[in-house]
Design a protein that fits this description.
The protein is built from six helices and 36 strands. The chain is mainly beta. The longest helix has 15 residues.
Length: about 550
């Protein structure tokens, strides 16, 4: 049976984390709120969903939850059959989790930590295993803004393990509905995910608040961060921790005139008080007010990967700051530990081989469903061959097969890329029908590549979702794929009864001992019992002898 968080505690956490703080400097509507009210793209869907959940929708959901609890509560369902396992515990009644990240202990690969957006706490739920994913225990990290002492909204998790430090690191956002503060925070665990940095002591990789002067730059909103660690002992930057993110620059009316990628990095996060961490900062892509057609000012969804020689690779998309349109797939590289990057990004996509899905709303929805499915790319690196694998949603064949998953590879550290090939294919090798989206990729120590994605090929109505996985043992020259979810689910029932958000990305980590595909899953949505609708976090247990 699934363990549950007591109803009273769950609702108290929701109230404490999702209601804006009452501080003396609360001002007019923050610019980021004006932005998401007016523009369909730009600031990420996870932030938009947390805002929506903390407003009237969450109040109504909490009211229904309380009513259901008073009527006897929600009876947890048993864990899924077969190799699928629900990783998170449930509140009572259950609330959604989505957007997943996962990493394993490189010294003991059967130990892993995963994280997801959590609408119980308003921050993230952390899930840990010591047996290769057969069993998981949950805890929660609710972010706290040290400038006022208030708990803030969080989410957008990233997870990495440091071989040098023997520690897991977790990144997430910190923001408010009615104040302009915006931070990217990093938490540390030295006991394999059992305990974490208290919210008030989180390391601050980026902030629009000046702790010396007590002033806030209301024009900045920091978004969509991910994290990586240099784990090669012979690397000149062994143990360095990297956090990439998008810096939205917002005008008073909410319009974003530029939104470049940024990097924060550090060599030490003190265990006793991570808030004392000293960070260096580099512009991956420069500020470019107004734009000049180069795409330098408009980027999103940065994915960092560290090579064995210490090079930092970053995959991302060129994306308008106010609309979800991704004209190009891009790559950046630093060979000096994040201090500098290539003068210009490398364009990965080639003419006639890639197209983004551009609907009338310019918001990445995939009809006939209402949720958004942005082109959140993924980048993986083979430590055996040095090959880079870049995986993404591709709509070049949309009239015939809807959204597909494609991939490209690089054998020279990302400076040149292969032609695009379809990854989500049928038995005859042609693109699978219906929509495939939200891919993630990883490589194990021996260079075996893995990728997962959401797939609707088995539903003639193109609604119900399964999770598929592809594997390559020949350095990404070819892949075999199969469905790994044991039950499909309806996204229309997945988020507080609205189906409006199922997350922007899934997670995957791979070792030669265990593979951890981690995805959002609504197969046990409690909408019939509670009227709320939920998603959980699932994995498929894959332990190698």
């Amino acid at each position: 049976m699934r363990r549950t968080v007591p109803t009273v505690a769950a609702l108290a956490l929701v109230a404490g984390a999702l209601v804006a703080p009452t501080t003396a400097n609360a001002a007019s509507e923050p610019r980021w709120i004006s932005h998401i009210k007016q523009y369909p793209g730009g600031i990420s869907n996870g932030v938009r969903a947390m805002y929506a959940a903390s407003g009237a929708g969450a109040a109504a959901a909490n009211s229904r939850a309380a009513t259901q609890a008073n009527a006897g509560g929600y009876v947890a369902a048993p864990k899924a059959a077969g190799g699928n396992v629900q990783m998170n515990d449930d509140s009572n009644p259950p609330l959604p989790q989505n957007e997943t990240a996962v990493a394993y202990n490189v010294n003991h690969p059967l130990i892993a930590v995963a994280a997801a957006n959590d609408y119980v706490s308003g921050g993230v739920v952390v899930m840990r295993t010591t047996d290769g994913g057969k069993h998981w225990a949950s805890t929660r990290i609710t972010p706290q803004f040290r400038g006022t002492g208030d708990f803030c909204n969080g989410g957008d998790p990233g997870v990495a393990y440091s071989r040098r430090d023997g520690a897991f690191y977790l990144s997430q956002l910190c923001f408010f509905r009615s104040q302009a503060y915006s931070e990217i925070q990093v938490y540390k665990s030295v006991d394999n995910g059992q305990t974490w940095t208290p919210g008030r002591q989180a390391a601050r990789a980026a902030s629009n608040y000046d702790y010396t002067t007590g002033t806030v730059d209301e024009s900045i909103f920091n978004d969509k961060e991910l994290i990586a660690v240099d784990n090669t002992p012979t690397s000149p930057h062994y143990g360095r921790l990297y956090v990439t993110y998008t810096k939205f620059h917002l005008q008073p009316d909410g319009f974003s005139d530029y939104c470049p990628l940024q990097l924060s990095y550090t060599d030490t996060i003190p265990t006793e008080n991570p808030a004392l961490t000293t960070w260096a900062h580099t512009a991956i892509q420069p500020d470019n007010p107004g734009g000049d057609g180069t795409g330098l000012s408009a980027n999103q969804f940065s994915v960092p990967v560290v090579e064995q020689n210490g090079a930092l690779d970053i995959g991302f998309v060129s994306e308008e700051c106010n609309a979800s349109y991704d004209p190009h797939l891009l790559f950046q590289k630093s060979t000096d530990g994040g201090a500098t990057f290539l003068p210009q990004p490398v364009q990965i996509d080639k003419p006639g081989q890639y197209a983004d899905f551009l609907d009338d709303a310019r918001d990445d929805t995939l009809p006939p469903t209402a949720f958004r499915a942005p082109n959140t790319v993924s980048l993986a690196y083979s430590p055996r061959t040095g090959t880079l694998l870049y995986v993404y949603q591709n709509n070049i064949n949309r009239p015939l097969s809807a959204a597909d998953i494609s991939y490209q590879t690089s054998a020279d550290g990302g400076l040149h890329w292969s032609d695009s090939a379809f990854l989500s294919t049928g038995a005859n090798g042609t693109p699978a029908r219906n929509d495939q989206f939200l891919p993630w990729a990883a490589s194990d120590e021996n260079g075996r590549f893995y990728a997962i994605w959401f797939d609707r090929r088995q539903d003639p109505a193109n609604v119900r979702i399964n999770t598929w996985q592809a594997v390559s043992g020949n350095n990404a020259a070819s892949f075999t794929s199969a469905k790994i979810s044991t039950k499909d689910w309806d996204p229309n029932l997945g988020f507080l009864g609205s189906g409006a958000f199922i997350g922007d990305y899934n997670g995957l980590a791979a070792s030669t001992k265990a593979v951890y595909p981690v995805w959002t899953d609504g197969r046990d949505s409690a909408i019939a019992q509670t009227g709320i609708g939920e998603t959980d976090i699932f994995t498929n247990v894959e332990i190698n002898p």
